[in-house]
């Protein structure tokens, strides 16, 4: 029997609504597979907690999380608490403290009808964005001088260390090699004359170790065009923290929206727990209405299962997601359906049982 200890941080807005469905899926898997079990410990951290206690998480929160096998997070940030406080004291803090330097964000079109791109098919839109997740533009370094005065100057410093840049690029090359795909680096060396010139140099240097991997390099502005006009160019993409943030929302836009976009924040060395979460935020505009799409959060469960080495279950969950968006009308309004969050979760579990039997996962 294998047991995995999972820390739950449902967080804000629709975070708790979608995490509930992901947990349902894990509990259903536990019932179907007698060799697997999951235990859950929930932490009530987020903006409400902040308004009550003045803290986004407990002072020893990082230590409390340290021994879990994984963290499953909903969303963080809500009107009433400034975003730079809520995010820096919870989500970004966890990514940094646990050195989750790899952010794996698949951009995969599951059903042709979901893309706004005319004539693009499921074969055309299927790539993996590997986003640097520990430093770069998100280093949190900067200064604000002469506040409020006419000569005010604000600095936001990008930090690109050799170690940090090499390790993400090497990780991406390994991924491309392993899966026999091309690697595309997205950067901006023409304008960012320190950070991105360095990034491009490291791509060249590390690339010499991978002569078998076909490598492309695009400026982020041109890449944004190609992502819309020519998404079939991309297979594995490696990019910096901020560019990765932006292009993965763009990726969501061409594959059905944020309700279907997932991300794993991984510490590959497993020195610290990794964290699984949907790409979307707390969606204050639909929070509390029971219509949030839980599929992105359920896809994070698939990524978590892969990370645990339970790839057969990871695949069963992903196949079920695919069937669900292809074959049913049991979908939330963002995908054109009129189902409620909980009904999508329940129906997902019924389908997962059938998938598990069909692909003989047990
Ligand atoms: P958002 O992702 O919350 O919402 C953007 C749009 O997508 C909204 O119209 C929303 O209704 C829709 N949407 C998002 N997820 C959906 C889902 N599962 N089902 C259906 N529709 C969905 O982005 P925002 O509005 O810019 O940010 C809201 C708050 O969330 C802010 O405080 C922001 O900082 C925070 N945020 C947190 C995370 C995170 O925790 N990882 C990610 C992004 C934004
Ligand atoms: C994401 C989010 C976060 C990011 C924010 C909320 C800090 O947008 O996970 O994509 O920029 O990484
Ligand atoms: Mn984002």
TrEMBL record:
Catalyzed reaction equations: (R)-malate + NAD(+) = pyruvate + CO2 + NADH
PROSITE patterns: IDH_IMDH
Keyword Nucleus belongs to the record: no
PANTHER family recorded: D-MALATE DEHYDROGENASE [DECARBOXYLATING]
Keyword line: Manganese, Metal-binding, NAD, Oxidoreductase
Occurrences of domain Isopropylmalate dehydrogenase-like (ranges): 5-348
Full protein name: D-malate dehydrogenase (decarboxylating)
Pfam families in alphabetical order: Iso_dh
Record-listed E.C. numbers: 1.1.1.83
Family listed: Belongs to the isocitrate and isopropylmalate dehydrogenases family.
Cofactor(s) named in the record: Mg(2+); Mn(2+)
GO molecular function, one term: D-malate dehydrogenase (decarboxylating) (NAD+) activity
